[in-house]
Amino acid sequence: MNEPLIECRNLRLGYGVNSVVAEVNLQIPKGILLPFIGANGAGKTTLFNTLLGLLKPLGGTLIRNFGSWPPGYVPQQKNIDPLYPVSVRHLVCMGFYPENGPFRRLQPGQIDRLEETLSRFGLHEHQRKTFAELSGGLKQKTLIARAFVGLSEVIFLDEPVAGLDAASEDDLLNLICALNQDQKKSILLAHHRLEDLSRLSDTVCLIENRKAQMLPASTYTTHF
């Protein structure tokens, strides 16, 4: 039997002595596209930060099988400096830092991956623009492209379409689904629009009443 991507047993999450999510029992398979849903303040970001290793659990067992490379992570846009003074191309190249560090030049194979990623995300014509010049949808595509250009086997996306117009939201969700199918990378995303769930995945992770559990996506069709 293949090892799960993530296994949580009686995991408790929070800050200091304050528990935010008191019971997490999950077994997440590799290769999945898994939306995390729940009301604002339910603990989605806290759970993400714990699974990423950015926050130490208060108790229980957490087993992560992320492969040889650290996971890619795209936080909520409100946590990104909107005046980021670098070009789109340079920002996407930051996805190679786990392989190269900040100073080593890209190798030929990495340049191929960069060009393919820029093309896949529709960023070629924008690659010389600064981050501040981009629309909300293109900013988010740039940040997600940075996560996907590297060798990470798992990508965490925290509210990747929040604040986008409907057309940009649909475009980005379709791209995320296609990347999951084509690249076979595991994608875990916090999401708020429940009407999207059935096209994203058969399964969701619900955070509610201080518990986290995996359930059929068809159960949820309206906003929290």
Based on helices, strands and strand pairing, what is the structural class?
alpha/beta
Rg of Cα set: 17 Å
Largest sheet: 9 strands, mixed
**Strands, count:** 9
Q: Judging from the principal axes of the Cα atoms, what is the shape?
A: globular
For the largest sheet, list the strands in their spatial order. 4-1-2-9-8-3-7-6-5
Oligomer: single chain
Low-confidence stretches: none
Describe the structure.
The structure is a single chain. This protein has 224 residues and is an alpha/beta fold. It has a domain at 78-147. 30% of the residues lie in helices and 25% in strands. The protein is built from seven helices and nine strands. Strands 4-1-2-9-8-3-7-6-5 form a nine-stranded mixed β-sheet, sandwiched between helices. A hairpin with a 2-residue loop joins strand 1 and strand 2 (18-28). It starts with 5 loop residues before the first strand and ends in an 8-residue tail after the last strand. The mean pLDDT is 89.
